[in-house]
Amino acid sequence: MEKLKILFFSCMFFVSFLVLGQQTKTITGIVKDDQGVALPGANVTVEGTTNGTVTDFDGNYQLNNVEVGSVLIFTYVGMKEQRVEVGDQDEIDVVLTISSSLLDEVVIVAYGTQTKRDLTGAVTSVSSEELEQFPATDVNQSIQGKVSGVQITQNSGSPGSAMSINIRGVASFGSNDPLYVVDGFPTQDISFLNPSDIESISVLKDASAAAIYGVRANAGVVIIKTKTGVKDRIIVSLDSFVSIQTTPQQIDMLDASTFAGFALETGTAQGVDTLSEWSNPESLTNVNWQDYAFDTGFKQVYNIGIRGGGEKSKTAFSLGMVDDDGTVVSAEYKRYNIGLNSEYDIAKGLKARASVKYAYSETYNNLSAGFYGFARVFDNVPYLGGGGITEPYDDNGNYGAFTDSNLISSSINVIGNALLTDNENATDNLLSNLALDYEIIEGLKVTGKFGYQLTSYSGSSFNPSYFRSANDQNANATYYVSQSKSRQYLGEFLVNYKKAFDAHNFDLLVGSSAQKQLYDNIATTGQGYLNNSIRDLSASESIINYSGTHGTATFASTFARLNYSYDEKYSFTATVRRDGVGNKFSSDNLYGVFPSVAGAWNIDREKFMEDSIFDLLKLRASWGETGNSQGIEAFKYLASYTSGATQDNSGYVFGGNPVSGLALASLANPDLTWESQIQTNIGLDFELLDSRFYGTLDYFNKSAKDFLLDQTIPAQNGFTTMSVNAGNVVNEGIEVMLGYRKTEGEFTWDVSANISVINNEITDLGNQDFVTYPSNFTPSFNTSWSGFTRSYVGGNVGAFYGYRAEGIFQSQSEIDALNASAPDGEYQPAYGLNPIAPGDRKFKDLNGDGEITAEDREIIGSPVPDFYGGLNVNASYKNWDFQLSFYGTYGNEVLNFIKSQNESLGAYGYNSVYTNVSQEYYNNRWTPENPSNTYARAVVEDTNRNGRISDYFVEDGSFLKLRNVKVGYNLPQGILDKISASKATVFMSGQNLFTITNYSGLDPEIGTATDIDGNGGVQTRGIDFGAYPNSATITLGFNLQF
């Protein structure tokens, strides 16, 4: 025992001697590029420690307490990393060379990673550095204009509103949203994610990259990886910004005095009743409704991130908060985020990974967007006075009213309603993943994964009772409540084998996946409350409607992928996936197989390219098939029945009692299957002249088939339509991305531009020539107003459909001549209302039958742009950073539905005679003294239907927006040392500061619109029903890192 003690203490002494004898020193030096230019801000760290520094303006550095034998790591953005072992030297100078990102960068792809050199598919990756260039609260905001082939549109400027994302054109009449895969979990919604938590985003655009997701990949795939921890150190980051938001412009409408004179003059001339108050316009107090609807908005964002780890584990934790009150009255969005990512090395070859993302959001929006909500801000009569209150509201809680007259019955105090109404929505979203990785032998790894997502939604809307006038009242308060819950479970098992020998590299993946979704929703409305303070369904006088559903959706899949490369010259990828989707299709169509193949040739690696200017020259080609089952109802292939009674709801009488029955509602079609798409892609990646010039070119052809449509069938079946798979849409296009980057002294800059040209064409619709939208909107006074978009064979999906305007009738003799040759003596019928007169809009007789009918409509425009793209600039000089981002579209059109209302004294669609008009129309309208050939005459309530949908209301929707501009200052090292920070940046940025466009409305950026009945979809793209405009924003913020 004594000998053991002596041996132990001897060892301890020896170890202590070694430790005490370990030499440390101070290392100095300079870091330059291969042109001899000093690199300020280069990172110098001691491997495996937190000891590090950055170079000063002249590229010099000093690093203390460096042990002999340790390794210094030198890094700089855009340069290759260099490692130097410390020996006897006290001064180490380093030259860094430019790194080719396409050679070295690792890209997140489906179920794994690949270097850009080995990629065979059309994949675009956006790093966290690029995502963090501009302040954002939505992940899609961060990539708009940065990825060719991806069109991202802000549907509304309302706080918390969703963005629409479209990858390489419209692929379905149903869902066109891509599949999102967040840390390996497939989902359809990422609005709950905090952009500050994102490490990288990969957009899989072609079928070879996306086909491994099979039936859910028709519209492309977006893979999102969130930030993970780091080993052997702790990084704490604090980010915050505050924004001031304003509405860029207003539509100039008539003020009270001008409107009164105009309405009195027009009504009197046409023999229509007028209001006595219009004879004394000076007595009216003007109300500019837009001044009350729009306000300066404020947005606050705070993020905290902690990333760290030890030898065997690493963890990332984050907190985030967004508070955005927007620029529209009674609108607000709040979101709270918590994130946790952990990895732990359990044993040799065995690793556990876990991630949890939770978000709680609240949305308040009391002034609904659209035709019957926000649009009233423009059409309302511009004054109040009923009850003696001349403003929308006063300091005593009173609300203004209009004159009690049917002549202005559609004008309601929309601002008062917005302040009284409570529309609240709350959403909880939890996304969690747990995975185990085990490396059985070198190169052979198995992974088991379990995921769970919970989305819980609750919404309520309280419309109080009030009386302001006979036409502006709500006798019975209503309280609407809805709740929904979705639970998704994911289980996956993967086997991955990688083997390299000589110049051959193999990467084989085989896996299976099972996912199940359970969803429930319920909604009900209570009517009649004793007072407006009660929010309780049980306290209502009656329940006027209720509904509820429960359903499931299941996916069962097996898949495989082989990646092979030879000598870094030739690459090959093949994938196949077999998908099964439960309860949507019959047993004969339950499963589908989706294959893909792709190849790439790194031409720059050939001997004949050794002395070329190219650092990278890669040719790619791919083919593959994907599917779509989104938006297809469960059990659609079966016959459905509806329950009900007789027409008067008395029921059929059996045994003296009324009994409800069942009736066939739709026919069965067991042949229904999912929509599918075949895509080919040819691409070229290149970098040249020391990788200063770089770019990507892609040609693609996507042929989508088997659309789910209601096809006409013979009437003897008892129905006129039946759901079938019919139709084909082809999207063919070219994507180009070009860039240039360079460092000159202390100035570094990188400029890139991308452009996408896509041709969208319907090539088949089964036995139909076209699909009309909305098919059910047919006002009784104007049957030709229905179907203002039409998707027809040979055209685009959702093209605008209407009449061709041919100027203005200038004389009665011109009208008489046309009437004389008309079959029924009337060239342009006004649908039983007033006959046409000089000053009315003239429409083109397209079919040559001598009169204007519904058959004289045609395609008058399209929301599909000829091309779209972005320009991005990233520059730095000494401690200053500068970023700039433009985004735009060209060749698309907008159907200005609001304009059709703003040029009518009483727009159809409202139960009113008089509504307000725009100043532009008032100044330029046709009169005998001003024979305009553009603006029609004023007609009370538009009884001559000059406002029917025609190409007059279709405008050029092309635009170029300064989406973002930012200037930042990085605090110098001296200040960082005083505050113990490794990085500190303060910045100022602007968003949507200006827009170049010919569009006359508030904002030409219109995505998927919500129509007058509250519906929306791919066939309402580009229609301005009265969406909130995007706000111009000025932001101040900071980023701190310790």
From TrEMBL:
Pfam families: CarbopepD_reg_2 (PF13715), Plug (PF07715). It is a multi-pass membrane protein. Residues 116-221 form the TonB-dependent receptor plug domain. PROSITE patterns: TONB_DEPENDENT_REC_3. The keyword Transmembrane applies. GO terms for cellular component: cell outer membrane. The keyword Signal applies. Keywords: Cell outer membrane, Membrane, Signal, Transmembrane, Transmembrane beta strand, Transport. Coiled coil: none annotated. It is found in: Cell outer membrane. It comes from the Bacteria. Residues 1-21 form the signal peptide. Belongs to the TonB-dependent receptor family. This is TonB-linked outer membrane protein, SusC/RagA family. It comes from Pustulibacterium marinum.
